[in-house]
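S.,

Sequence below, as promised.
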Amino acid sequence: MKSFSAKANAIFDEATEAYHLKNSVSAQMENPYEPDTIEYFLYEKNWIDVVQWHLEDIIRDPDILPKEALEIKRWIDRSNQERTDLVEKIDNYFLHHFQLIVPANDAVINTESPAWAIDRLSILAIKIYHMREEVNRMDTDQQHLISCRQKLNVLMEQRVDLSAAIDRLLDDIAQGRKYMKVYRQMKMYNDPSLNPVLYGKNKNNIRTGFTCSYMSRILIIRLSALGDVAMTVPVVHSFAKQYPQHQISVLSRTSFAPIFRYMPANVRFIGVDLKKQYKGLKGLNRLYKTLKA
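The prediction came back faster than expected:
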């Protein structure tokens, strides 16, 4: 009898291969399994993961336009929510499957639920697929190929170990040695009733969670990836609207200046390279003088 992990790995490989036949983040999923079955959920789970994998590739393009980066970042946020919802569906399947099992008196709980371990197994399938692509490249040097073969071997070993751990966990639950408990993921930023910016807009009042009546300046530092920086733009507009009397400085990489081109009058952009321009105590003093100017 095929183990659960063997079935999951086969379905994950199937979904990953199917995506790459279309090779488009906008491609429609054609799930070959019966809806509301565990096989259907596993296929859908991997499809979401592989689409998000390629969205993460796209958003790291240094030449991506700010508007496109913002759209992709929001797409990734939606994808993360869908991924979480699907993991909870898989856990619900196991809760139902094991509902008649009576745990032993000394039964213990695992560090994560079965579905979150299976989530990692899905990601591994995608990593293995792409690392195999690297190993088979003809347009690179030998050192790159050797390095990728070593990484592929590690990924394959990790898959074997994780698969065995998942099967062992499911067997432990089935035998009552462990019990299953699921904590729902509380994604607050997507919930209009929990995200202050969203419920603030519903009241025609941008709420940031604190007041700045005793301040005259606000500094926002954002030095991460372009997609994350692009998501800062509406936040800056919100601050500018709520605190029109304050000087708002946005500190980010010089190359990101076009993203902040159309800002309210009380917002200024400061392009920096913190490692080069503001390193150490002298650098911090220089930064302070720049902000006061």
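The chain has two domains: 4-179, 194-292.

Coffee later?
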